[in-house]
Structure prediction request, 254 residues.
Amino acid sequence: MIIRKSAAELERMAEAGEIVAQTLELVRESIRPGVTTGELDRIAEEFIRSRGGSPTFKGYRGYPAAVCASPNEMIVHGIPGPYALDEGDVLSVDVGVTLAGFVADSASTLAVGEIDEATERLLQTCEAALAAGIEQARVGNRVGDISAAVQRTTEEAGFSIVRSLVGHGVGRSMHEDPQVPNFGRPGTGAPLSTGMTIAIEPMITAGSADIVVADDMWSISTADGSLAAHFEHTVAITESGPWILTAVRARLLQ
Ligand code: MF3
Ligand code: CO
Prediction:
């Protein structure tokens, strides 16, 4: 069942989304060679709580941390810990915040210092695939229009879509209907209508799209060890087009 949100509820989700965006910015600023993913998690959790939010992921099905931190060939759900970042690494950081009963969810793959050109292209493609998906998040379109745009952007650049993990509706719960696959055919799937809120989240790889789950039962990596990227935004479908709820909001100077 798809749960559509009122204008007031969207406003509350945008408040949660702003904390998510600011947390990702803080993590981006804190990233440097030598810092551990555990330290980044503590920085993120402290900030989220200082803003009155709670980290949605912590305790979700027993997940032990505030954020997910997935280096290099790890795609998603990496548990922050003693891993110290290296110059040239990439780190996929996924943040969820609950505020006043609503959840917002966003992720970015961040560079540690200088990364090589091929890696830069992987990150740019994943971000462009997310943007192409968001562009389709319009009244009158269907979920498959989003999926197809993400897939086309990724595959035209020569990269692979991870098919066994999908985006999702989001609201009072982190995961609501509908599922939002990162591959599909235009004109198929659930129709998009005003008040729907979905997390669009392409996960792409430089090699094969096959995945493996680690012994910790959380971290998911590419089976062939190739690099992965993950970008995600929580987006509302509105009469006036897609509204990215997890973007840093412009504020008018008083
Ligand atoms: N963005 C991820 C998702 O939508 C976050 C889940 S991580 C978990 O599924 F640890 F909370 F599971
Ligand atoms: Co998500």
Observations:
- The chain has one domain: 7-252.
- The helical segments are 7-30, 37-50, 117-135, 143-156.
- The pocket of MF3 (ligand 1) is lined by residues 57, 60, 63, 68, 77, 94, 96, 105, 168, 199, 232 (CB under 6 Å).
- The radius of gyration is 17 Å.
